[in-house]
Structures are given as C-alpha cells and as structure tokens.
Automatic annotation (TrEMBL):
The name this protein goes by in its record: GntR family transcriptional regulator
Organism expressing this protein natively: Pseudomaricurvus hydrocarbonicus
Domain HTH gntR-type: 22-90
One GO process term, biological-process aspect: negative regulation of DNA-templated transcription
Family matches, as PANTHER family: MANNOSYL-D-GLYCERATE TRANSPORT/METABOLISM SYSTEM REPRESSOR MNGR-RELATED, MANNOSYL-D-GLYCERATE TRANSPORT_METABOLISM SYSTEM REPRESSOR MNGR-RELATED
Domain of life: Bacteria
CDD domains (alphabetical): WHTH_GntR
Amino acid sequence: MTTVLELFSLNQIQSLHGESPAPLYHQLYSLLKGAILNGTIASGVQMPTEQQLAEAFDVSRITAKRAMDELAAEALVERRRGKGTHVIHEYKPKPVKAPLVGMLQDLESMGRQTHVKVLLCEKKAPPTHIRELMQVPEGEDVYHMIRVRSKDGEPFGYYTSWTQGLTSRITASQVKKKTRLELFREQGIHLTHVTQTISAVAADEELARELKTEVGAPLISLTRHSYSGTDPEVLVDYMQLYYHPDRFQYRMDLELEK
C-alpha cells in the first residue's frame, strides 16, 4: 500500500531546501496542500505524523507542525487525539473544457484520413438503458451503428453508437463515404455540446478479434455524449469507443487561463 510520503518525488522533497525565500514551513504546507487539492492525497487518508514529515523532508518537527497547523486552519485536514490527522477535503475533478468546433474538425479530419469498416448500420429498438438515457419514446427506433476504423491496414478503433433524430435512411455505403458528422448536418442535426469520459477496459472476444489483440488486453475506453439544441438540450448521439493503445493516442493541449 502506497503511503502519503511515497507520493512525492525526490525532486519535490529536495525542492524545500532550494533558494525559495518562503519559510520552510510554508513550502512544506504548499506542497501538501497542492497534493490534497488536486486529489493526489484523497479524502479520508491519514496524514504522516509530524515526526515522519520532519524525517522525510529533512526539516524540524516544529516546521512540520506549523505546516500541519496551516492545513488544519484551512479545513483541509482534521486532527483527532489518538486517531491522527486525516484529510477532510473532498476533491471534485473539474471537466476539461475545449472549443467544440475545433474538436469536431479534428474528428472529421480523422474520419477522412482513415478507413472505416461498417459492421452494422440499422434502425432498431435501443436497449432499456439507452432508451432511458436518450429519453427515446417507447416503441420508437433509433439508428445503431458499429464500425471499426483502421489506418495503414491496422485497426485502431471500435465504435458502437445509438443516434436519434435522423429522418432519412442511412446506409452502410453512406457511412463509408462520409463522416457521421456530415450525415448529421445533412439531416439538420447540429451538435452544440459534447461530453467525453475516458477510462480503460479489458478486451472481450469481439473487441480482441476486430482490433487484432488478445482477449483481456487493455484498451482505452471513451464514452461520448453528443447533444443538440439548448432549450431543451437533447442527447442525440451516444457512442462508446474502444481504442488500441499502441495505435491510438488521445492528446489534449491545455493552457492556463490568462
């Protein structure tokens, strides 16, 4: 089990004895505070004792105590006699925001530069959890597509999607010639909001076969919710994507707010 002290690199520990004009206690306090605020040290975790901090960071026990006092004063940790000091700050990750137009352009560019194999393209009743998520009326069918994208003969992505609001028939031939975003626009669907959640899964038999990997191999999993309209906002497309990690990278370029 990883201890709190093992979360810090040697460079971070040694940085406390650099040329910073800030007092040592404040440097230690800032280092610990940052780790708590960004979720590195999770809520409920027991903090090291003052003696352990002093030994690990090569500072005096008084310095370690003052740093902990500052954390307690800001309600980031709570001290209990006989039970030690525990983190009480609840870390809540903030979603990364990026321009939608730029993201959609990237998706269309990838769609034009890669080859797609359509495994399924049909209108059918969605499973219950999809129906409820998309608020599709009982008895109404939506488009279900399953596709595999490849580049230079190597499959890198497996896509399964459910789409509502398409008024005209879409065929596998159309999906091979145009990106889905182009087909959406042709039928009057304009995306206004997209959310994505990235995780990881183990490949099942279907994914392993189509992505040319082994059953149980790790894959990047991405769940995408695409909305249209603003009042009310409607979930028009639900997509689950699986990527081969050796053939696909998800890159984000983030800048600090000015």
